[in-house]
């Protein structure tokens, strides 16, 4: 682990400071949280080379503590990089490749939205639309924390943050109104770029 490379936070896109229904204040605070995950990831990876591997155990050990928190930090980085990258668009109905996938796997854009809204209301931290490579279809998954309920061999294409930090300044406890604002700001061009880049099959 001594040869790890420190990473830096990705730059915040200017468009994210002018979203419809999600304030600049919220985005700036949210971005600082993401920066904190990057800092913590770098810090933990710097500490791991000095850990006594022979003392590792599942009840409590320094290795266990650091590696559990590393998964939380790395999850926080990756989830937020998806979240910030695909905001700043005009929302509306999906188009192009992602529209085909949603129509195929949910029946309609309205059915997908209804299911994602409900998933977001049911989750404690995240809701993701991901392509499951084993089942060959899209599904809306719940994640209660940055590092819980990961689905192996599934690629997230939409990442809806439903932690209170994502909406409390703008909506207090009205999570449903925030989810509607999130959907109004999705950039389907970005999502379609991911579908193409990951070579997700359309049939």
What order do the SSEs take from the amino end to the carboxyl end, as H and E?
HHHHEEEHHH
Sequence stretches where pLDDT stays below 50 over 5 or more residues: none
Determine the number of helices (DSSP H or I, runs of at least 4 residues).
7
Could you tell me the number of beta strands? Answer: 3
- Strand order of the main beta sheet, please? 2-1-3
Largest sheet: 3 strands, antiparallel
Distance between the termini: 41 Å
Description:
The protein is mostly helical and 203 residues long. The protein has two domains: 22-85, Helix Hairpins, CATH 1.10.287; 96-197, minor pseudopilin epsh fold (3-Layer(bab) Sandwich), CATH 3.55.40. Helices cover 48% and strands 11% of the residues. The chain is built from seven helices and three strands. The protein has helices spanning 24-47, 62-85, 96-106, 109-122, 168-171, 175-184, 188-197, and strands at residues 126-132, 137-143, 154-161. The chain has a three-stranded antiparallel sheet with strand order 2-1-3. Strand 1 (126-132) and strand 2 (137-143) form a beta hairpin. The longest helix is centred in the N-terminal third of the chain and has 24 residues, at 24-47.
Write the layout of secondary structure elements.
Blueprint: H1 24-47, H2 62-85, H3 96-106, H4 109-122, E1 126-132, E2 137-143, E3 154-161, H5 168-171, H6 175-184, H7 188-197
Short description, anyone?
By secondary structure, the protein is mainly α. It has seven helices and three strands. It has two domains: 64 residues, Helix Hairpins (Orthogonal Bundle), CATH 1.10.287; 102 residues, Iron/manganese superoxide dismutase, C-terminal domain (minor pseudopilin epsh fold, 3-Layer(bab) Sandwich), CATH 3.55.40.
């Amino acid at each position: 682990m001594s040869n790890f490379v420190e990473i830096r936070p990705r730059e915040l896109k200017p468009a994210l400071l002018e979203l419809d229904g999600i304030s600049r204040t919220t985005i700036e605070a949210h971005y600082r949280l993401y920066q904190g995950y990057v800092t913590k990831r770098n810090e933990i990876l710097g500490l791991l080379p000095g850990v006594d591997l022979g003392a590792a155990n599942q009840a409590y050990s320094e290795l266990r503590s650091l590696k559990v928190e590393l998964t939380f930090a790395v999850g926080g980085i990756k989830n937020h990089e998806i979240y910030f990258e695909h905001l700043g668009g005009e929302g509306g109905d999906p188009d192009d490749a992602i529209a085909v996938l949603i129509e195929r796997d949910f029946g309609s854009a309205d059915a997908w939205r209804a299911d994602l809204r409900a998933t977001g209301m049911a989750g404690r931290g995240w809701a993701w639309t991901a392509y499951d490579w084993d089942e060959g279809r899209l599904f809306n998954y719940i994640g209660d924390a940055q590092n819980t309920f990961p689905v192996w061999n599934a690629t997230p294409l939409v990442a809806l943050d439903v932690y209170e930090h994502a909406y409390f300044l703008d909506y207090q406890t009205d999570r449903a109104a925030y989810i509607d604002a999130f959907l109004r700001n999705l950039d389907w061009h970005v999502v379609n770029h991911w579908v193409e880049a990951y070579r997700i099959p359309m049939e």
